[in-house]
Amino acid sequence: MPERTRFLLSEEEIPTHWVNLLPDLPGDPLPPLSPRTGEPAGPDDLLAILPPGLIGQEVSGDRRIAIPDAVRDVYRLWRPTPLHRARRLEQALDTPARIFYKYEGTSPAGSHKPNTAVAQAYENAQAGIGKLATETGAGQWGSALAFACAQFGLECEVFMVGSSYDQKPYRRSMMETWGATVHRSPSDRTQSGRAQAEHATGSLGIAISEAVEVAAQDPDCNYSLGSVLNHVLLHQTVIGQEAIAQLELADAVPDVVVACVGGGSNFGGLCFPFIGPVLAGTARTRFVAAEPAACPTLTRGSYSYDYGDTVGLTPLMPMYTLGHGFVPPPVHAGGLRYHGDAPMVCGLVRAGLVEARAYRQNETFAAAVQFARTEGIVPAPEPAHAIRAVVEEAQAAREAGEERTILFGLCGHGAFDMAAYDAYLAGTMEDPELSDDELEAALAALPEAPAIA
User: Partner of 295 for a Cys bridge, out of 178, 180, 328, 424, CB 3.0 to 4.6 A?
Assistant: First the structure.
């Protein structure tokens, strides 16, 4: 009998609860700070742009939070997602390691992003909100929210980072097919956009500023964020919970879990359910966060309070940051071009529970092409960084003669990213890296805030 390649769950096995890691994080929690007063921000500071249901999830101390039936009903369109054993990649790497990947590219939008988009659209609809405004980098988040808004009868307005808007026009077409209105960011539609016109390629920080400005000025409109915040990572934990059940079917326990990191939602979604047992002392799993060398937030950033957006409209968050004014080079992994990261992920990195690694574009795409030629799926540029880390782990296992088990998150497909593959295959892809002088200049503009010990 052929060895099993895919490990599948039934619709009835979709998780019934999200996993909340917040109450178990090491150390004392650091509060976000109000951008107006500099004092700890409370729920009232978020009511202008978020519904009460999401604010409650953002600050909840409950370890498990029930998933509403209406959200699980929409999840049934694509969840549970498959877990694959990458046997052909193992053979190509000549490694004794067992490599598994959790594939989120089967969702309607082609990535992990609908897991939180559906939950956010639901809570806003329940609160009587008629419209959501958001940003998107590579387009996965904007596509996911456009899809989710269509499920609950909401309007959707998306500010898409300029470089990705130009590189990926069909992502825009997908959003518009689901009924969204899409603007290139920076735009001339907001004060925030006009103030950043000199940065023509845009950034996630600029696009966030534009979306927050629109939401704050319209009482029928709320803001929706695709990463970074606690409730967003919470919603994504369906990924890791399913992976745990599927690995049991494979009689496997991961020695290392790998995921790419931009704002942290993909990493948190896959890793948080596995990190809980490590924090409890019942497991010894390692965790690797892979990011681009052109935007090395976790590997070279400063652990400081900083704004989540470029203009300074959002609360200040304790996180690794390259400075809210930092505009990354227009690398093809548009979803990883963010100056900061989720405070929960940053706290785990700082505590030594997560190892961060940074990779250049060409080595990343070399791994992505090898994966596509062995496993058949063309990965999005973002999870290609995780694949590069997996190759390192598999080679280390071969050199050590260890049969380690590796799990990674393939959080989306690359069907809309072929221009990036064209550049790599033609030998024209560049390898931008952040210089020390650029980093120093970006960090010099950090806002005045309490130092973090």
Answer: 328
Structural domains in the chain, sorted by start: 69-110+231-443 (3.40.50.1100)
Q: How far is Cα 367 from Cα 114, in angstroms, rounded to an integer? A: 26
pTM of structure: 0.96
Count Cβ atoms within 10 A of the Cβ of residue 428 and give its class: 0-12 exposed, 13-18 middle, 19 or more buried: exposed
C-beta separation of 235 from 119 below 8 A: yes
Angle at 76 between CA 72 and CA 82, to 5 degrees: 115
Question: How many angstroms separate the CA atoms of 271 and 290, rounded?
Answer: 13
In the beta sheet, which residues pair with residue 194?
none
Q: Is the bond preceding 296 in cis, omega lying within 30 degrees of 0?
A: no
What's the pLDDT at 6?
A: 97
The pLDDT value given to residue 49: 83
The string of DSSP letters for 327-346 reads: -----S-GGG--SS--HHHH
CA 122-128-133 angle, 5° bins: 70
- Residue 429, number of CB atoms within 10 A of its CB: 18
Q: Which residues in the chain show pLDDT less than 50?
A: none
The C-alpha atoms of residue 355 and residue 408 are separated, in whole angstroms, by: 14
Q: How far is CA 273 from the centre of its chain?
A: 16
Q: Are 287 and 268 in contact (CB under 8 A)?
A: no
Question: Are 336 and 295 spatial neighbours (Cβ–Cβ below 8 Å)?
Answer: yes
- Distances in Å between the Cα of 139 and the Cα atoms of 10, 159, 200, 251 are 29, 10, 17, 36
